[in-house]
UniProtKB/TrEMBL annotation:
Pfam family, one: ADH_Fe_C
Similarity-based family: Belongs to the iron-containing alcohol dehydrogenase family.
Entry-linked PANTHER family: ALCOHOL DEHYDROGENASE, ALCOHOL DEHYDROGENASE 4
Organism domain of life: Bacteria
UniProt keyword annotation of Hydrolase present: no
Keyword Oxidoreductase: yes
Molecular function terms, GO-annotated: alcohol dehydrogenase (NAD+) activity; metal ion binding
Residue span, Fe-containing alcohol dehydrogenase-like C-terminal domain: 187-367
Matching CDD domains: Fe-ADH (cd08551)
Species assigned in the record: Chlorobaculum parvum
Protein name, UniProt field: Iron-containing alcohol dehydrogenase
Keywords recorded for this protein, A-Z: Oxidoreductase
Domain Alcohol dehydrogenase iron-type/glycerol dehydrogenase GldA: 8-175
Length: 376
């Protein structure tokens, strides 16, 4: 069994106000700061930024106004901006896309190469400058992972820069920073966490230890969503812990069809990654249960002394109720109907063979048709 997690965590209400102290503890003398433009009007973030400026008068600040997931071209432009300023550390405050951008910049600051040359799983790269992440949405888990997603515009594909050297040195998780985010973004991000937990749980590469994180992450996130009180800091803390657990499990196991479908739909229709995964999650789970996979019973937060299949079916009923509560859409709003199920299944299965192979039961083009048909 192999298991890794390489980021120091500091979680707490108001912890972001001391983020400059975390930079100082890492020996950073001149930080670069990247933050989401969506945070500009957030009064709490303004206090955080004020403290950073007080601690570092020489900080180099960049507001990321890029919409959607970053492209390699955008990464190249932002890296060039910071190369001119030569910071010796990087602080990133924002959602998963901005944090991924920060990972790419941190690596490019010590590797004088093009962004595209690092796509995939680069080898023999220099260590990046120290990176501190502060998430403003809780669910993607980007704040503790080494993966960084980027879109190759020429190929129209989501790829990434995936090096274990990308691990942030420290992540400061403060639920107050997420309080001004639109509720639909909070929900989509939390659903992304559920996808991570379910895919990693069922992955053919799971371990006993990764499953502990999958189960804890799922139950914390599921409960927080069920309660419908996401405007409370306590619920956001549950989302934070669920996000860390789900991403840790995913890194130590592997993904499955749901995450693969999310990548495909996200690129084709610019659907936020968390929402794209949510669309497919429940029906992928239902397909697996129909094929005799009953181990989802272990994810059920209210497990009873009943046969595993009954417990797994009860979880699906709870998922149905949650989807109605959160108004999670199907594929119809994105132009899919009964007439193009076969086409989508064919294209998805060709593009996602790796993700399909991680499913706990055989998952092929015909399986994809069953899932997609249920969503149209």
């Amino acid at each position: 069994m192999n298991f890794f997690l390489s980021t120091d965590l500091c979680i707490g209400v108001n912890e972001a106000l001391a983020v400059h102290e975390h930079l100082q503890a890492l020996g950073v003398l001149k930080p670069g700061v990247i933050y989401d433009a969506s945070l500009s009007e957030n009064l709490y973030f303004q206090d955080v930024l004020r403290n950073i400026n007080a601690g570092y008068s020489n900080g180099v600040i960049y507001c990321n106004e890029f919409k959607g997931e970053p492209t390699y071209r955008h990464l190249e432009n932002v890296a060039e901006f910071f190369r001119r300023e030569q910071p010796d550390g990087l602080l990133v405050i924002g959602g998963g896309s901005t944090i991924d951008l920060g990972k790419g910049v941190a690596l490019l600051l010590t590797n004088n190469v093009s962004a595209l040359s690092l796509k995939g799983f680069p080898k023999d790269v220099n260590n990046p400058v120290p990176l501190v992440t502060v998430p403003s949405l809780l669910g993607s888990g980007a704040e503790v992972s080494f993966n960084a997603v980027f879109i190759d515009e020429d190929e129209g594909r989501k790829l990434g820069i995936n090096s274990r050297k990308n691990f942030p040195k420290r992540s400061v998780i403060d639920p107050k920073l997420s309080m001004s985010a639109p509720m639909e973004s909070v929900i989509a991000s939390a659903m992304d966490s559920l996808v991570h937990c379910v895919d990693s749980f069922g992955s053919v590469k799971h371990t006993a230890l990764s499953r502990i994180f999958s189960i804890e992450g799922f139950q914390r996130t599921f409960y927080a969503l069920q309660q419908g009180q996401l405007d409370r800091a306590e619920a956001r803390l549950d989302l934070a812990l669920g996000s860390v657990c789900g991403t840790t499990a995913l890194m130590n196991s592997g993904d499955g069809p749901t995450n693969g479908f999310a990548y495909y739909l996200g690129v084709k229709h610019q659907v936020p990654h968390g929402l794209a995964g949510a669309i497919f999650l429940k029906e992928v789970m239902r397909y697996n249960v129909s094929q005799g996979y009953d181990k989802y019973a272990l994810l059920n937060p209210v497990r009873k002394e009943v046969p595993a299949r009954e417990c797994a079916l009860e979880l699906l009923e709870q998922m149905d109720a949650l989807y109605r509560q959160l108004d999670i859409p199907n594929l119809v709003p994105y132009g899919y109907g009964k007439g193009n199920v076969a086409e989508l299944a064919s294209k998805a299965s060709q593009a996602l063979s790796g993700s399909f192979g991680g499913n706990p039961v055989e998952f092929n083009e015909e399986s994809a048709r069953v899932v997609i048909d249920a969503l149209t």
